[in-house]
Amino acid sequence: TRIMVFVKTLLRRSDNFMYIVKKSELAKKALLVDLVNEESYGELAEKEGIEISAVLTTHHHYDHCGGNEQFRRDFPKIPIFGGDPRVPGMDNHVKHEQEAELADLKVVCLSTPCHTSGHICYYITDPSNTNHGVVFTGDTLFIAGCGRFFEGTAPEMDRALNTILAKLPDDTLIYPGHEYTVANLKFAAHVEPANLKVQEKLKWAESQVARGLFTAPSSVLDEKLTNPFMRVRSSEEIQKTLGGNDPIEGMAKLRELKNKF
């Protein structure tokens, strides 16, 4: 049977995700990923029945760490992890492939600079069964998309998506920073119209959203099959749409097209 890391997804603002991560549903110790808003994290902990072991911040944009300073006031001793000195309240500055054991879970920090220069994704597994992990991708990888290249370049995003994240096991569950899935899949269908997996997933995503449900998580395998930014090498149709098969040029062109789509 699959020992699952337990993740509870919380929507903040209109489309931001904050996550509670635990070894199992009944576990008390928890990690929080991306504190979107100033709110009472003491109240949240009480309501959810959790003891917060640490905060993991993916990047310094305010809609991912707007709650860090409030959290630091409420909990002066609980560590806040991040990869960028601009992350407020951070007291654990992490590097690529740094590991930590937090809340009885194994956390591997993956440096994915591009959207911001200090962006970190967090790959989390149960130390007793490291096969079935989850990864929190902030604004690097969205379901069927990726973040804008605010502080980086196409080669950096290509490395983040197609070297670092693509190497995680196929069944790794992906939890992104935003609910952008429907718009991303519409773009994916536009650049790769013959991809039936994209069309199927778009229908599914639209029905999830219509019912007030989330489209997260996805999986690494699912992204390899549907995410145009992870298909610049494998999809001849995308290469044809972009007029060439250079993956880095393709990544840059795709991002430009998506920005205007």
Give the secondary structure arrangement, pairings included:
Blueprint: E1 6-12, E2 16-22, E3 29-33, H1 41-48, E4 51-56, H2 62-65, H3 68-74, E5 80-82, E6 92-93, E7 99-102, E8 105-111, E9 120-126, E10 129-138, E11 141-142, E12 145-146, H4 154-165, E13 173-176, H5 181-191, H6 196-210, E14 218-219, H7 220-226, H8 236-242, H9 247-260
Parallel strand pairs: 3-4, 4-5, 5-6, 10-13
Antiparallel strand pairs: 1-2, 2-3, 7-8, 8-9, 9-10, 11-12, 13-14
Helix pairs in contact: 4-9, 5-6
Can you characterise this structure?
This protein is α/β, with parallel strands linked by helices and 261 residues long. The chain has a single domain (6-260), classed as Metallo-beta-lactamase, Chain A (4-Layer Sandwich), CATH 3.60.15. The chain has helices spanning 41-48, 62-65, 68-74, 154-165, 181-191, 196-210, 220-226, 236-242, 247-260, and strands spanning 6-12, 16-22, 29-33, 51-56, 80-82, 92-93, 99-102, 105-111, 120-126, 129-138, 141-142, 145-146, 173-176, 218-219. The strands form 3 sheets. Strands 1-2-3-4-5-6 form a 6-stranded mixed sheet, with no helix packed on it. A 6-stranded mixed sheet has the order 7-8-9-10-13-14. Strand 11 and strand 12 (145-146) form a beta hairpin. Helix 4 crosses helix 9 and helix 5 (181-191) packs antiparallel against helix 6. The chain is globular and about 55 Å long. 46% of the residues are buried. The mean pLDDT is 96.
Mean pLDDT: 96
Regarding quaternary structure, how should these chains be classified? single chain
* CATH architectural grouping: 4-Layer Sandwich
Physical arrangement of strands within the biggest beta sheet: 1-2-3-4-5-6
Domain module tally: 1
Radius of gyration: 18 Å
Q: Kindly report the name of the CATH homologous superfamily.
A: Ribonuclease Z/Hydroxyacylglutathione hydrolase-like
Sheet of most strands:
6 strands, mixed
Structural class label: alpha/beta
Strand tally, please?
Answer: 14
User: Given the structure, what is the number of helices?
Assistant: 9
The proportion of strand residues reads: 25-35%
CATH class: Alpha Beta
